[in-house]
Design brief:
With 345 residues, this protein is α/β, with parallel strands linked by helices. It has twelve helices and 18 strands. The protein is 31% helix and 29% strand.
């Protein structure tokens, strides 16, 4: 292998991948699930490979020259079935954040899906054409036909791109759009996580919002039980009222607060300001609002409710909810990625 090939290989390392397994899959057509989260983009293949990227993107100007790393992707769209992208270049992940890009939670992710998905497709040395026989995506509400149409029309078909310096063709034959909680529910059933053959639920706590959803004992989604609750974006708003943050010259940046929650530092950017002293109280308030909303919305099902599995990037913050319900609510072992792992089941 030449030095240039070695350098390219370094650029293509993303979290939790297995290159030989994916190389085999590419020859026969991939089945892929992509969950475009407001904080993290999750990607899974049918052979169990999972990778993630920070959910940021930046449309690049001709003078931008972003450097690549394991959490940063650069894409240029040459031609294909999405005319809106022809000639466009964009970055996704850490470099997009560092260059002042836009977090997904500030926009409508349904319309960003083509850019974010094409960044997630793995390219390998010697492989310049990737056939995706089945692509599964998800939306908070899969009944919103305009958003479903935007995802299908934006992704289905052929796309000629340059991804991290490698020219490749991505062919997407079929695309499905699922409700966001379905993957987690199927994953829970496949792993026998519900102890009772009753109505059970999923509470997906994400960055911008969360979703509570109940399913019957045979796995039928109860549409009327869908509840939108506040995600960590709301928690960040609560934290922004911390006295030390309020004393700053500028309005607190909610993205920096959410980063501090995610990395566990509870420290605002590089200012040295910590909100750890009041964090438990802020979380309690946030969770109390969520629990009250679920109790009201699920009132007719509570008497026969079995268990509720908590998933999503913010699930680890919900330990008080587990304790208050005496284990009736419980946190998944892989809360951030179990949804995307179940989308192909």
């Amino acid at each position: 292998m030449t030095n240039s090939q070695t350098q390219k290989s370094a650029y293509m390392r993303e979290s939790r991948q297995n290159l030989p397994a994916e190389s085999k899959s590419l020859n026969s057509g991939l089945e892929i699930a992509v969950d475009v989260g407001n904080r993290t983009i999750k990607y899974c293949t049918s052979d169990g490979q999972v990778k993630t990227l920070p959910s940021w993107h930046k449309d690049l100007e001709e003078w931008d020259n972003p450097q690549l790393d394991s959490n940063s992707i650069v894409v240029k769209y040459l031609r294909g079935d999405n005319p809106n992208l022809v000639g466009e270049s964009w970055s996704v992940g850490t470099v997009a954040q560092d260059l002042g890009g836009t977090p997904t939670f500030e926009l409508d992710k349904a319309f960003l899906a083509p850019k974010l998905f094409l960044a997630m497709i793995q390219n390998l040395a010697g492989v310049n054409s990737i056939n995706v026989s089945r692509l599964v995506c998800c939306l908070p509400n899969d009944l919103q036909t305009e958003k479903v149409k935007a995802m299908v029309e934006g992704l289905k078909g052929t796309h000629n791109i340059i991804r991290n310096g490698q020219t490749m063709t991505v062919n997407i034959a079929n695309l499905e759009v699922q409700p966001e909680t379905l993957g987690a529910f199927k994953w829970a059933l496949s792993n026998k996580l519900f102890r009772y053959a009753r109505i059970n639920g999923i509470l997906d706590l994400g960055g911008k919002t969360g979703i509570g959803q109940l399913y019957t004992k045979n796995g039928t989604l109860i549409r009327e039980s869908r509840v939108i609750v506040e995600g960590t974006y709301r928690l960040a708003q609560i934290i922004s009222k911390h006295p030390s943050l309020m004393a700053q010259d500028t309005t607190p940046d909610l993205s920096l607060i959410m980063d501090a929650i995610a990395d566990g530092s509870l420290s605002y950017g590089s200012t040295g300001i910590s909100f750890a002293d009041r964090f438990p109280n802020y979380v309690s308030k946030w969770l109390a609002d969520i629990r009250n909303k679920l109790k009201i919305s699920w009132a007719q099902w509570l008497a026969g409710l079995g268990e509720v599995l908590i998933v999503g990037g913010s699930a680890s913050l919900a330990t008080p909810l587990v304790e208050q319900t005496q284990g009736r609510f419980k946190i998944a072992e892989q809360p951030q990625v179990c949804s995307v792992m179940g989308m192909l089941l």
